[in-house]
Amino acid sequence: MVKVPDIKVTPPGPKAREIVERDRAFVATTTKSAPIVIRRASGSVVEDVDGNLLIDFSSGISVLNIGHAHPKVVDAISKQAAEFTHFAGTDFYYDIQARLAERLGKITPGKHRKKVFFGNSGAEANEAAIKVAKSHKKRHIFLAFLGAFHGRTQGTLALTASKAKQRAGFFPMMPGTVHVPYAYCYRCPYKLTYPSCDLYCANIIEDAYLKTVAPPEDVAGIFVEPVQGEGGYIVPPPGWLDRIAKIAKDHDFLLIDDEVQAGLGRTGKMWGIEHSKATPDILTTAKSIASGIPMGATIYPAEMDFPESGKHSNTFGGNPVACAASLATLDVIEDEGLVHRSAQIGGYMAKRLDEMKDRFEFIGDRRGLGLMQATEFVTDRTSKKADSKIRDAIEKDAYEHGLILLPCGESSLRYIPALNIPKDVLDAGLDVLEQTFRRAGK
Ligand SMILES: Cc1ncc(COP(=O)(O)O)c(C=O)c1O
User: Fold this and answer.
1) Does the beta carbon of 225 sit less than 6 angstroms from any atom of ligand 1?
2) CA distances, 56 to each of 30, 296, 356, 428 (Å)
3) What is the pLDDT of residue 441?
4) Which atom of ligand 1 is nearest to the CA of 294?
C-alpha cells in the first residue's frame, strides 16, 4: 500500500519552482492558483516533479470524474490514436462520432431525437448553444444569472457574471444579455428565507424582468447552471429549477442547461438538472465528457438543427481520439455505477464537512450535491463577511500538506474528487483538510 499523501519536500520543491518560473515567463497569464507541478497521476493521486504524492480534490477543475489515467480510457485513446487522430468530423464522416452523438442523445433528459454539435471546450459548447437558439428562435435576448460562468470567449463572456474582473476591459459585450440574481439562499439578494420566499428570485423574472427589460417575444433562451460552479457552488433550493423551466415554457423561450461542471454524475445524478423535473431544450457539456481530452458538446432536439450546411462548424469538433475517450468514459461511469457512488459517498463527505463546520467558526456555509461540495469562509457567522484571505491560506496550507484544492466564488473552496475515489483516500484527504482548518483556527 502506498501511503498518501506523502510530502517529501514542501511544494513547490526545487524542480517545481524551476518549471513554474519558465511557465511564468512564457505561458499566458490565466487563472493559476497553486504552484503544483504534476509529473504523473493515477486515480486520485498526483505525483509532482519533486516526488511528492498529493490527493486530488480538484479533478483538473471537474474534468477527471473517473480519476486520472483510467486504464479503459488510456486503452481507448491509444487504440484510436493508432487508427487515425483526425479527419475533420465536421466535413467528413467516421463512425465513432455518430455513435457518441447517438449515445449522448439517449443519456440526456427527454426521449425525443437529438442532435449534437461537437466543440472543444465548455465555452465552445455554449457558443454553439447561443447560435442554435438564435437560429431556431430568430431572437437574440438571453437571460442569464448573476454569479454565472459560461465561458470566457467574447460571446459567452456576455453570459458570464461571476467576477467583475472577468469582464473588465472587455466591453462591449454581445448585446441583448440580461442578468438576474441566482437562488443564493445563504446570501439571498432579497434578504428572504426559503421556503417562505415562495421562490421570489425566480418569480421576479416573470413579474419584473419580462415585463420591463426583456420582452418575452424577443427572448431566445435562459442559460442556467443547475448548481452554480465558478460562482461558488451554489445549490438552488428545491423547486427553483422547475419554476425557471416553467417560466421559460410559459413565455416560449428555451431553457439552456449548462452542465459543463455539474454534469456526468458530479452531483449524484447523471445531469444536475435531474435534481428537478425540468427537461432542458438545449444541454451543454464539456469538462469530464472525455476525461481530459478536449471536447464540448451541445445537445438539442433534432428539429432545432441548423437549417443548412455552413451555418456553424469548426475544425477539431468530434475529434476521433476525444470521441474514443468519451465513449470509454461513459462506459466507466455506467459500469462502475459512479452516479450512484457520487450520491452515496458525496453524502458521507458532506457529513464530514458539516462536522468541521460545527467546529470551525470561519466556515459560514457548507453546501453541495453528491461529490460537488464546497465550504464558504467568513470572518464571522453574524456579519457573514466573505473571508477570501483565510480561504487562500487554507488552500495553500492544504497543498503543502498534500491535498489539492481549488477556490470558487468570493471566499469558497470546492471539494470535487473523482467519483471513484477510494474511501480511504477520501478520508485521508478530509483528514488533511481538518488539520488545515485546525491550524487556520489558531
Ligand atoms: C458551468 C461552466 N460552463 C462553461 C465553462 C467553460 O468551460 P471551458 O473552460 O472549457 O471553456 C465552465 C468552466 O469552468 C463552467 O464551469
Assistant:
1) yes
2) 21, 23, 20, 11
3) 87
4) 10
Going from N- to C-terminal start, the domains of the chain cover 72-335
Please work out whether the CB of residue 286 comes within 6 Å of at least one atom of ligand 1: yes
Task: Check if the beta carbon of residue 289 is closer than 8 Å to that of residue 295.
Answer: yes
Of all protein residues, the one whose alpha carbon is nearest to atom 7 of ligand 1 is: 122
Query: Residue 123: CB within 6 Å of ligand 1?
Result: yes
Residue with cell 433528459: 109
Ligand 1 mean position, distance from CA 125 (Å): 9
pLDDT in tens, 29-58: 999 999 999 999 999 999 999 999 999 999
Distance in Å, CA 149 to ligand 1 centroid: 7
Pocket test for ligand 1, best of 166, 260, 264, 298 (most atoms within 8 A of CB): 260
Residue type, 2: V
Per-residue pLDDT tens over the stretch 81-121: 999 999 999 999 999 999 999 999 999 999 999 999 999 99
pTM confidence score:
0.98
pLDDT digits (tens, 9 = 90+) for 317-350: 999 999 999 999 999 999 999 999 999 999 999 9
Which residue type occupies 266? R
State which ligand 1 atom lies nearest to the alpha carbon of 122: 7
Ligand 1 centroid–CA 197 distance in Å is 30
Rounded average pLDDT over 266-272: 98
Beta strands in 286-431 (DSSP E): 296-301, 363-369, 372-377, 403-404, 406-408, 412-415
Ligand 1 contacts CB of residue 230 (under 6 A): yes
Query: Running DSSP on this structure, what letter comes out for residue 234?
Result: B
CATH of 72-335, one of 3.90.420.10, 3.40.640.10, 3.40.309.10, 3.40.50.620: 3.40.640.10
